Every structure is written in structure tokens, then in C-alpha cells.
């Protein structure tokens, strides 16, 4: 068992008060932490793994197990590691100033130690002396005594100012985008892209865009709550509530878990329920419930299905509607995840004599191979994920503007294939977990060019909250753009298209 962490007593929220130099430890250096404490070492291990290309969400559970952290230490390590990854851009600006050298001139491992220290000082409630001592101890463990003097000096300088004072110190004046990028710790191109998205989707005007953008960037830095879905007909929201969750106000099939392990909930263990953003739930329901013409095939298609979150909802709703479902995924591994997600639906579909097929295939080829064969088609296109940055702490630093150019042709081809695969009178839903106009409205506009057989349906009325009301603040339509700072969901985009009968 790791030793109790006396360095984590509740304290004043960081960064709202005066300088904290006076809070420095009265301990002599020789009395300070000599070694890394397990939770901090686990957080450091994750940062190094992410630097090597790992995905934080996938990697951290194994690190927590390897370091044998109890639930309290695991929660601390998660807040420390994920918060550090999110705020890395801001902390690097602080560290550069405090160290008097660019971060490129600091050893990568030592830089990660300093980032973790900066987060404890400026972003968590860890007392300044404990943050500094533990960070020096971590430096000694991972980089040897040589680095610990440097780390000690930088930590001392960082601790001399509050977060707000550091913001005034390192955030550039004048250039709004550059300033927001540092203050809210996003790459500059992402700040520009989100500004364009707020304006492009009519969420903000020139007058309101700055405050909307700040709220959106802030929500990217706030860990998402754990949203659950009770797959329709397979589980109920009440089952999730009985297991400790709170019923969602946003999604009729949703619930929110405040703490604890979702995997311990029986309905989730048997895949009748799952962890899923409420926005994703809503758009799957919208596609499944918007009316189609009589006589369209009772056969639905999920063209980009892996790992199967939306297929799980669509499969359950297809079963209720007496429809077949084909879930297509190009990656073999992700197609296996879809199979596993759909297992409980598959068993019931077989009993109901319905066809449920998971196919490892290229969705771009389905339209030509099976023209007009489906009544409802979902294209949940591969995208930059700029609308889900709060869920993937390192994603903002991985993505590059060039990704947009790479994904664009694929997104257009998949949508064109879907439009060919849908039968007259049937519906295609095009979705992304990005609000970027280049992945949303421009893709739809281009795919509809040179076709006169498609009409755009107002999707808003099919986005109904748990009370059955149309969700608030859906804008002017016809498409729907959800926002984390407005709806509490990922920034999902959804357009509903009908092939003329
Ligand atoms: C945004 S994810 C889909 C998420 C999924 N609908 C869910 O809710 O869990 C996009 C998926 O499309 C897959 N994909 C990429 N290119 C594809 C293609 N040409 N055909 C089919 N699937 C493709 C990716 O492997 C990825 O799993």
C-alpha cells in the first residue's frame, strides 16, 4: 500500500491569492522528499508514455495497476497527469520564464517533472512546500541528483507567483488568438479553428465571439463527467440510477456518474449499457426516429462503426423497430470491438429473425456495391476530434492543421457513398465530433454539389431531451451543432439528409 500522502491536505484554491513565496518549506533540503511518491511517479510515467505516442486514456489504467495505487491515490494521479497534459502549453510558458531558457533546451524527462510540479502549484490544491519537495524528490528518482538542483530552483521561482500573476506575466498582449492560446493552453491553430467554428455555425457574432470562445476553451480544460447510456430496450436509466448514477436531463437514455468505476455497474458489464457522451446518444436517436417514407428498406447502415458506441444505440433501436443493421468498419481490430459491443443485441436480433452484421470493409465502396439498399445510414466520419478535447487530454497537442486536409477527401467520399447507399425516401445522418467547418458544413456542401436527389432536413426537432422537449440553444438549423459549454456534451455536429422519394 502506498503511504498516505500528507502533502495533499485540502488548502486554499490555487492562484486566487497573493504571492506564495512565504509558504515555502522551512525544511532543509536534506529533510525534503528523497524519492518519488507513487501517485506522482505514476503521473510522470504516463507523461513519458504519452511523449512516446501512447494515448493517456488507454494507458493510464495499466499504469495505475502497475503502481498499485489505491482509489484515492489513483484519483490524485489522474487529476495530476491529465490536468498537466491539458495545461502543458501554459505551464511551458511559465517554466520557460522561470528557468530562463526555452523548453527545447530542457531534458524531456526533467521538463515533464517540472510540468507536474507547475500543475500542483498553479492548478491543484497541493500546498506549495509539498509540491516543491515532492517534485524535487521525483526529479531525484527519475533523473538523479544533478537535475534536482535545477528543478528546485525553477519550482521556487514558479511558486513565487500565483496562477493569475503568471497569466499576466506570460500571456502576450494584443494578439487575441495568441494570448488565448497561452492562457487556455491550446495550440494557436486550434483556437483560430474554434473561433471560426463558433462564427461559422452561428453560435457567436463578432461581438460575442471572444466570450463564447473563452467559455469553450475553458470547457476543454474541464474534465468531462462520466456519461452513461442505457441502450434502449436492453437496460433502463433506472438501473443506472440504482447503481449510483443520476438521470441525465439531456438524453432520454442517459445518466451521469459522479464517481466510482462504471465497469462495476452490472448493466455496463453485460454491455446493455455503456459509457457514452450524451451528444452521441442524441444523434443516434435522431437518425433512428426521424420519419422516413413508407416502404424504404428496413435495413440500417452504420458506415464508420468502430469502436461501436453509436452502433450500440442504433442496434438496440433497430431491434425495437424490426430493422436489420449492417455495421461497417475498415479496421479489423475496431470491427472486433463493434462485434463485442453488439453481442447482446445480436442474440436478441437472431431470436427476432433480424440480420445484424458487422463487416470489416471500406465504407467508401458500399454505395456502389449496394445502391439504394438502406433506409437509414449513419456516417460518423473519422475527424480531428476537436469537439472532444476535454476527453483526450493530449489530443490538442497531437493534432496538426494538416490533418484536416488529409481527412477531407475521406469524409466526402464516405458521405457520397452513404448518399448512394440510401434508398429514396430514406435518411443519411452525417456526424463528426468536431465543429470545424472544414469537416462539417463544407463536407456536406461539397457532397451535395452536382446532385439534386437530396434535401436537407431540419434535424433540430429530433434532438429531444429527457423531458421530451427540443434541446435548448440549437441555433438556426437545419443542422445541429452541440457545444460543451452550452449543452455539456462533446461538440458534435449532425446533418440530416433525405433522398427524395
Ligand atoms: C469517429 S470514429 C466512429 C465512432 C463510432 N461511430 C462510435 O460511435 O463508436 C470513425 C471510424 O471510422 C473508421 N473508418 C475510417 N475510414 C473508414 C472507411 N473508409 N470505411 C469505414 N470505416 C472507416 C475509423 O477506423 C473509425 O473507427
In terms of DSSP E residues, the strand content is 5-15%
Classify the helix fraction into a percent range: 40-55%
How many structural domains can be distinguished in the coordinates?
A: 3
CATH class of the largest domain: Alpha Beta
* Poorly predicted runs: 1-27
Shape: globular
Just name the CATH architecture of the largest domain: 3-Layer(aba) Sandwich
Q: Looking at this structure, what is the CATH superfamily of the largest domain? A: Vaccinia Virus protein VP39
Bound small-molecule species: S-adenosylmethionine
Please state the CA-atom Rg, rounded to the nearest Å.
25 Å
Q: Roughly how many Å apart are the termini? A: 66 Å
- Decide which structural class fits the backbone: alpha/beta
Largest sheet entry: 8 strands, mixed
Helix segment tally: 20
Question: Which topology of the largest domain does CATH recognise?
Answer: Rossmann fold
Total E-strand runs: 12
- Quote the average pLDDT: 93
Please describe what this structure looks like.
The chain has 20 helices and twelve strands. The protein has 501 residues and is an alpha/beta fold. Helix 15 links the parallel strand 6 (324-329) and strand 7. The strands form two sheets. Strands 5, 6, 7, 8, 9, 10, 11 and 12 form an eight-stranded mixed sheet that branches. It starts with 37 loop residues before the first helix and ends with a strand. The protein is globular. Bound molecules: S-adenosylmethionine. S-adenosylmethionine binds next to helix 14 and strand 6.
Amino acid at each position: 500500500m502506498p503511504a498516505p500522502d500528507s502533502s495533499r491536505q485540502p488548502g486554499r484554491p490555487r492562484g486566487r491569492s497573493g504571492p506564495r513565496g512565504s509558504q515555502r518549506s522551512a525544511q532543509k533540503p536534506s529533510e525534503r522528499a528523497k524519492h518519488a511518491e507513487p501517485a506522482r511517479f505514476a503521473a510522470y510515467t504516463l507523461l513519458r508514455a504519452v511523449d512516446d505516442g501512447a494515448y493517456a486514456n488507454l494507458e493510464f489504467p495499466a499504469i495505475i495497476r502497475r503502481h498499485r495505487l489505491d482509489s484515492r491515490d489513483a484519483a490524485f494521479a489522474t487529476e495530476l497527469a491529465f490536468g498537466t497534459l491539458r495545461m502543458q502549453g501554459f505551464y511551458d510558458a511559465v517554466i520557460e520564464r522561470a528557468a530562463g531558457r526555452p523548453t527545447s533546451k530542457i531534458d524531456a524527462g526533467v521538463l515533464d517533472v517540472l510540468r507536474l510540479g507547475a500543475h500542483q502549484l498553479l492548478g491543484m490544491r497541493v500546498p506549495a512546500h509539498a509540491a516543491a519537495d515532492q517534485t524535487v524528490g521525483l526529479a531525484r528518482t527519475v533523473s538523479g541528483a544533478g537535475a534536482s538542483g535545477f528543478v528546485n530552483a525553477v519550482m521556487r521561482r514558479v511558486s513565487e507567483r500565483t496562477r493569475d500573476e503568471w497569466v499576466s506575466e506570460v500571456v502576450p498582449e494584443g494578439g487575441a488568438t495568441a494570448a488565448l492560446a497561452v492562457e487556455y493552453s491550446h495550440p494557436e491553430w486550434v483556437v483560430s479553428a474554434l473561433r471560426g467554428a463558433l462564427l461559422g455555425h452561428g453560435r457567436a457574432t463578432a461581438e460575442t465571439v471572444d466570450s463564447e470562445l473563452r467559455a469553450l476553451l475553458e470547457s476543454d480544460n474541464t474534465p468531462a463527467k462520466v456519461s452513461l447510456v442505457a441502450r434502449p430496450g436492453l437496460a433502463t436509466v433506472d438501473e443506472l440510477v440504482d447503481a449510483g448514477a443520476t438521470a441525465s436531463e439531456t438524453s432520454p437514455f442517459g445518466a451521469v456518474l459522479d464517481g466510482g468505476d462504471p465497469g462495476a455497474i452490472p448493466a455496463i458489464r453485460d454491455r446493455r449499457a455503456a459509457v457514452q457522451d450524451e451528444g452521441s446518444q442524441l444523434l443516434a436517436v435522431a437518425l433512428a426516429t426521424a420519419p422516413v417514407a413508407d416502404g424504404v428498406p428496413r435495413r440500417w447502415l452504420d458506415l464508420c462503426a468502430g469502436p461501436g458506441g453509436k452502433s450500440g444505440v442504433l442496434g438496440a433501436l433497430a431491434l425495437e423497430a424490426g430493422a436489420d443493421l449492417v455495421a461497417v468498419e475498415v479496421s479489423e481490430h475496431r470491427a472486433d470491438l463493434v462485434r463485442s459491443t453488439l453481442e447482446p443485441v445480436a442474440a436478441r436480433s437472431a431470436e427476432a429473425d433480424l440480420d445484424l452484421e458487422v463487416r470489416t470493409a471500406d465504407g467508401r465502396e458500399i454505395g456502389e456495391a449496394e445502391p439504394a439498399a438502406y433506409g437509414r445510414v449513419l456516417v460518423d466520419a473519422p475527424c480531428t476530434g476537436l469537439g472532444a478535447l476535454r476527453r483526450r487530454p493530449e489530443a490538442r497537442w497531437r493534432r496538426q492543421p494538416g490533418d484536416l486536409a488529409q481527412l477531407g477527401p475521406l469524409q466526402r467520399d464516405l458521405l457520397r457513398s452513404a448518399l448512394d447507399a440510401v434508398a429514396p425516401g430514406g435518411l443519411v445522418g452525417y456526424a463528426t465530433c468536431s465543429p470545424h467547418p472544414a469537416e462539417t458544413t463544407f463536407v456536406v456542401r461539397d457532397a451535395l454539389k452536382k446532385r439534386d436527389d437530396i434535401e436537407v432536413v431540419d434535424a433540430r426537432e429530433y434532438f429531444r431531451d429527457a423531458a421530451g422537449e427540443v434541446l435548448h440553444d440549437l441555433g438556426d438549423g437545419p443542422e445541429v451543432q452541440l457545444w460543451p459549454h452550452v449543452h455539456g456534451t462533446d461538440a458534435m455536429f449532425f446533418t440530416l439528409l433525405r433522398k427524395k422519394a
